[in-house]
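Database export, one record per block. Field names are fixed; values are copied verbatim from the stored entry.
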Amino acid sequence: MFYKDERLALFIDGSNLYAAAKALGFDIDYKLLRAEFMRRGKLLRAFYYTALLENDEYSPIRPLVDWLNYNGFSMVTKPAKEYTDSMGRRKVKGNMDIELTVDALELAPHLDHIVLFSGDGDFRPLVESLQRKGCRVSVVSTIRSQPPMISDELRRQADNFIELDGLKEVIGRPPRDPIPDHDLEYSSSE
């Protein structure tokens, strides 16, 4: 469903794509992902949206954000908000839907095809608006997880649904296990 001469852009809802890939049991290789869509058309931009915890000394997503920033992705970040819910649990809130929507609508006149990496049903009106502006919209997510990671409304609205599990062989790598604390070496500068 791609044409070699069409101008395309990727809009990646980072937390949503991460959750979908994790549910399918693999990690995304973003270098391969970018190369795959460069092969499919004239890739003008690849946006990656994520919220970051600013007050943590080390954020597990920081190395990915830095790598993407240096390797052809346009990073859109904002500070995540921390709060304690009514049960006393620490929660993090960092919705990037508005930023993604504004960027997609601004770029639409310069694009033929938009690829949205998200299953969030809140994006259905965005997809409909982009289509009215003349853009074709493909949505990448999965129905092969339990429960499915894409809303039925978003899948129906999209011009094309791309099953993330179908891209696994092209853009995936086995998940990395976290390093147990006892395997880490600590050094002091004293």
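Remark 1: The first strand starts at residue 7 and ends at 13.
Remark 2: Residues 14-24 form the longest helix (11 residues).
End of record.
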